[in-house]
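Need tokens for this chain, all 238 residues.
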Amino acid sequence: MTHTLVITAAGGSSRMGAMGKKEYLTLREETGGRVSVLSEALYTFISTGLFSLAMITVPADGEELAREVLAQDPRIAKAARTNNCNIFFTEGGASRQDSVRRGLESLLLRTGSSRITPSTVLIHDGARPWVPADLIERVLSATVTHGAAVPTIETVDTQKEVDQNGKIVRHLDRSRVFAVQTPQGFRFTELLEAHRKAAGDGKTYTDDTEIWGAYAGEVFSCAGDRANRKITFQGDLP
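Here are the structure tokens for all 238 residues:
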């Protein structure tokens, strides 16, 4: 089976203020290089040896900068060579939904010349640098088994549904409410077709499980990991 990866890093990171684009921020300095948020996430994926191709969505005219950021982490080129994983970049869209669809289309173009359609694809937020390797393997295994899989973690706080006026309209059963993480895994062909249909239906989808659920079928969950945090605000950085 041919397993592929899309990492979304096309957003503007407006919530980070003057700190700039969060995927490119420094996590730590190492001898001979700099580990960024994006490079830390990418390194873990390609080090598993499970992926033949990684596609990174970047802002318009942003490929050169993204390449520079990854080149500063010497682990990336070495791991890509060792594990025979090709890394490519494509321009993202105005929304996460658009960016993922463009990433999938670019993956298809890259593999089309070899006449090998990817079997699966994992979609990961470029702002989640601390994704554990065993979580990646767990999601991929569940994807192969079920067709679509997403890691979830139990919610700690009691959950309520609130209307636009701030009034609580529904008390949710916490035992059945879970927070969803990435990577989210899918059979490649079905996800691409679902994204193509969703692009024309006039609706907005916040993640790929909604699109899969609307046009492809059921999504199954597997155990997530609390270490797999997403950087959204300045305080999320160590």
